[in-house]
Amino acid sequence: MIDRETFLELMSGVCSPVTVVTAMTADGRPHGTTVSSFASLSLDPPLVSFALDRASRLLAHLQPGDRVGVNILGAHQQEMASTFARRRREPGLKFDGVTWTVRAGLPYLPESAGWTAGRVERHVDGGDHVLLVVHVEEGESTSTAPLIYARRVFGTHSLLAAAS
Ligand SMILES: Cc1cc2nc3c(=O)[nH]c(=O)nc-3n(C[C@H](O)[C@H](O)[C@H](O)COP(=O)(O)O)c2cc1C
Asked: Which domains does the chain have, with CATH numbers?
């Protein structure tokens, strides 16, 4: 069996996008969490997925049938990624000092490189995480350079130097 350290080191070398997944609580408060496990799952029907730690407080607001927003962060939003990764006793506090609006009824970070919203279709057991399958209803992309996480640091994507 692979040991924990080897597994962590292996996976830290896998580049991932950085998103802030959002939901509106039943009493109308915004909730957002930094999530790098966001991935494309299916084209027809349009599905995406991401995994949430079972301890994530956002999970309680993302049950099957609930609406969810995904802000795909740009290279200029590293601080935003850190802000939404902080554990706060009152999750709405993560939005203090952050520019945000409501889009399609969900918390939206307007400077993001991309946006998608949809409905949680199902939960899949993922060990200490839960994999959420989301049916995409709307999306918008920009040409903004993406924020990327690898080897425990933030970066962005760039072209390889042309082969000589
Ligand atoms: C770059 C980065 C990527 C992360 N990706 C995930 C993820 O995919 N799933 C997850 O559950 N937590 C992820 N986290 C950790 C959560 O953002 C963090 O535990 C957060 O405090 C959870 O907040 P919540 O309890 O309000 O949901 C990530 C953190 C960072 C810095």
From this structure: 16-155 (2.30.110.10)
- pTM greater than the 0.90 cutoff: yes
Give residues (CB < 6 A) around ligand 1: 18, 33-37, 50-53, 56-58, 81, 85-87, 91, 149
**pLDDT single digits (tens) 15-29:** 999 999 999 999 999
- From residue 60, alpha-carbon distances to 35, 105, 126 in Å are 15, 18, 16
Q: How far apart are CA 157 and CA 164, in angstroms?
A: 21
Counting ligand 1 atoms within 8 A of each CB, the residue from 15, 16, 35 with the most, and so the one to mutate, is: 35
pLDDT averaged over the chain?
A: 96
